[in-house]
Amino acid sequence: MDLLNQHVSVRKFSDRMITPELLNRLFVAGARASTTGNMQLYSVVVTRDQAMREQLAPLHFNQPVARTAPVLLTFCADFNRFVKWCEVSGASPGYDNFHSFLTAAIDALLMAQNVCIAAENAGLGICYLGTTTYNAREIIALMKLPQLVVPITTVAVGWPAEQPEQQDRLPVASVIHNEVYHDYSAEEVLAYYSFKEQLESSRKFVAENGKASLAQVFTDVRYKKADNEFFSGKFLEVLKEQGFLK
Amino acid sequence: MDLLNQHVSVRKFSDRMITPELLNRLFVAGARASTTGNMQLYSVVVTRDQAMREQLAPLHFNQPVARTAPVLLTFCADFNRFVKWCEVSGASPGYDNFHSFLTAAIDALLMAQNVCIAAENAGLGICYLGTTTYNAREIIALMKLPQLVVPITTVAVGWPAEQPEQQDRLPVASVIHNEVYHDYSAEEVLAYYSFKEQLESSRKFVAENGKASLAQVFTDVRYKKADNEFFSGKFLEVLKEQGFLK
């Protein structure tokens, strides 16, 4: 539990290689994660090659960590392998639908988190790239992902060259509900977020962006309505292109 | 890493209670999971109450574990709290779209897996219920989930009263791709799945269901095309009802 409680995202890595043996151990531990009906509806694409990393980085909006990490792991919802098995086994698969996509995405994310915890347990540093769903189409093309395979998240992994401070979290009571959802009054929301708003880093963020509140940095700069809507449409098209919205 | 490698799903639990303090520690560790932009786009609804468990069990198709577990944790993608914070902070949120749902679902799943690992580390047993997305609408009604909150997965937790054998997994090489996706030939698929097909439990499964192959048990009995399509439509309607497909 200490390991989980010490988690930080690492964005600077040393030159030290991750051996294939270690990477393999991470995947073995990853594949132990719970999976729907033991179907293991995921694949992981490992990016080490310098030329591939150069092509992948702009698809992650050139976040520095997408270039500096020695290894990028792209976790994909994958019904292709399972469907191929059905087809060679005289079975008629019916997994070209949204429900099946969601099932596979859940599988892929539980595996991803297991891999991250195994990595941290081995002394490695990790950082999730939340940008995978933005440019899923381009990642699909680059990695030659077939029908019924869609990338969901990417993890940068390497030996850490920094020890960042932990980020704040909301009071745990704010995300837990007993028996039924207790909706938030304005006062409760303000109380829960006040610690975050008063952080030196938050104040700096607000000032740098010339905004009136921390929330405005999120809505006006980081996660904008127009972008969210654009990428919603794009991702739903990708699901259709990959055969998950027939 | 040993802890991850020893994972089994536990479906029988002793009468021993989980103390609120221990549950709280699991949530603290859970909330340490990576989260998009540190937004923590999730909520967890804790079901302990007997009457609530009785109402929840049929929504999980009366899987025995949904009744026998002392605690059920329903992990939800939640943009409601964040949006409420935006609104009281003079910010204009734009999170009523599919992209935002997916982002929140990813957050919720990484947190869920952290909670599971923390639970196992404390000696508890866990079992995921993959049925949450089937009856999301009814779970929303029962737990009074507001707009922009959608349940994604449920975890049964308790002190184990059994030590099940580990389930098989595919050879790890079958789920890993270097640089680009290596699509599977019929021979490769058969080789990867042969171990699973030859298991005593698989053969029994095939015989009991009167099928010609293990894959047919999946396509014809466990995860049928008509069901998948029905629940695809239903879940997309739920996303619309909850304000995530505007």
List the helices and strands and how they pair.
The structure is a homodimer of 246-residue chains.
Chain A: H1 2-5, H2 20-30, E1 42-47, H3 50-59, H4 64-68, E2 71-78, H5 80-88, H6 98-121, E3 125-129, H7 136-143, E4 149-158, E5 176-178, H8 186-198, H9 200-208, H10 214-222, H11 225-241
Antiparallel strand pairs in A: 1-2, 2-4, 3-4
Question: Could you explain how this protein is built, in words?
Answer:
2 copies of one chain form a homodimer. The first copy, chain A, is an alpha+beta fold. In chain A, helix 2 crosses helix 6. Chain A has a domain of 163 residues: NADH Oxidase (3-Layer(aba) Sandwich), CATH 3.40.109.10. The longest helix of chain A has 24 residues. Chain A has a 4-stranded antiparallel sheet with strand order 1-2-4-3, with helices on both faces. Chain A is 48% helix and 13% strand. Chain A is globular, with a radius of gyration of 20 Å. The termini of chain A are far apart. At the A-B interface, helix 2, strand 1, helix 5, helix 6 and strand 3 of A face helix 2, strand 1, helix 5, helix 6 and strand 3 of B.
CATH superfamily of the domain at 2-164 in chain A: NADH Oxidase
Distance between the termini of chain A: 42 Å
- The stretches of 5 or more residues of chain A where confidence is low (pLDDT under 50) are none
CATH domain class of the domain at 2-164 in chain A: Alpha Beta
The share of residues in extended strands of chain A comes to: 5-15%
Report the total helices of chain A. Answer: 11
Shape annotation of chain A: globular
Run of helices and strands of chain A: HHEHHEHHEHEEHHHH
- Average the pLDDT over all residues of chain A and give the rounded result: 97
CATH architecture label of the domain at 2-164 in chain A: 3-Layer(aba) Sandwich
- Structural class of the secondary structure composition of chain A? alpha+beta
| Radius of gyration of chain A using CA atoms only | 20 Å
Assembly category: homodimer
Q: What is the CATH topology descriptor of the domain at 2-164 in chain A?
A: NADH Oxidase
Number of strands of chain A: 5
Identify the biggest protein-protein contact and residues per side.
Answer: A-B, 115 and 115 residues
Strands of the widest sheet of chain A, in order across it, are 1-2-4-3
Helix content of chain A: 40-55%
The main pleated sheet of chain A reads as: 4 strands, antiparallel
